[in-house]
C-alpha cells in the first residue's frame, strides 16, 4: 500500500496508536502496530522500526511498558477513575447544554483508550438530564474572563423562563464583573450592577447578547463590605442560595437527625450547642433572604430563633401555606 503520510510521522503515530488501543490489560504486539499504522494512517514501516520508535518515546518521557505480550502506554494524563469523575461533573452541570456536554465528554474520552468509552454508559443518556438550552454559556465565559482581566464593564440581556418553557427577556444590565462562581451545580457571575449600585449574582445560563464595554469597571474595594476583597466563605458555607444581601448572624434550633445536612450546607465553621431537650442551637452567618428559603425546606427539623424579622417571615409563610392547603 502506498504511504499517505511521510515516515517521519511514524513516531507520533505509534504514540497515538498506543494511546488509543492499549493499556495494561490490552498490550499490542509490534506486528499489530505495523498493521494499524498502515490501516489508520497509510504508513508502511518495518517491524524493527517499532521498537526503535518506542525507545525514543520512552527517552522523551512517555512511559511505555513492553512485555512478551506486547507494548502499552503505562502512564496517562488522567487515570480512568479521574476521567469518570470529570465526566460525572459534566453530566451533572446544569449550565452546560446537552450538545456541549456530549462534545466535552468526547474530548475527555479521547484522553483514554477505546476500551474506556465503552464503560462510560452515561455519555449516551446526557439528553435525559435537566440542562440549560443556552448555547452561549461558553461564549459568555470567554467575554467575562476578558472583562475581568481588562477591568472593563459588560452589558447583557438577562432572561427568565416563562410558562411556555422558553426563556424571555427580563431586563438589560450593565455590570462590573469580578468573579464567576460555581454553586449548587450552577454557574453564577458576581458583579456590581451599575444602575442599582449593589453586588448581584447572575445565572450564567440566563445571560445572552453579552457585550464588552469600554467603560472601566467599578473597583471592588470601593464597594461597602468588599474593602478587603471577596470573602469566599460566603459562597462555600454562609449562603445556601445566591442572594446579594449582607450576611447576618442567624440562630436556629435543629433536631439531631438534621445535623449532617446542616454541616453539609454550612460547613464546620458554625457554632453548635447541645440543649437539655436533646436538640441543638446552631449559629451561622448567612444571607437572611437565603435562610428564609432554606428554613422552609427544613421546616420539620429547624426553628428559626433570630433575627426576629426572619422568624416572622417564616411564620407568615407557614400561615399562607396553611391557607392554601386548608380543605
Secondary structure elements and pairings:
Blueprint: H1 10-21, H2 30-41, H3 47-59, E1 64-67, E2 70-73, H4 80-92, H5 98-109, H6 114-119, H7 137-150, E3 152-161, E4 167-183, E5 186-193, E6 198-203, E7 207-216, H8 233-238, E8 248-254, H9 259-266, E9 271-274, E10 280-286, H10 288-297, E11 302-306, H11 308-324
Helix pairs in contact: 1-2, 1-3, 2-3, 4-5, 10-11
Number of strands: 11
Which series of helices and strands comes N to C? HHHEEHHHHEEEEEHEHEEHEH
CATH topology of the largest domain: SH3 type barrels
Report the top-level CATH class of the largest domain. Mainly Beta
Helical content, roughly?
A: 25-40%
Q: Average the pLDDT over all residues and give the rounded result.
A: 86
CATH hierarchy: architecture of the largest domain: Roll
Uncertain segments:
none
Structural class: alpha+beta
| Alpha-carbon Rg, integer | 28 Å
First-last Cα distance: 83 Å
- Major beta sheet summary: 5 strands, antiparallel
Q: What general outline do the C-alpha atoms trace?
A: elongated
Give the DSSP E fraction (strand runs of 2 or more residues).
Answer: 25-35%
Question: How many structural units, i.e. domains?
Answer: 4
Outline of this structure?
By secondary structure, the protein is α+β, with helices and mostly antiparallel strands.
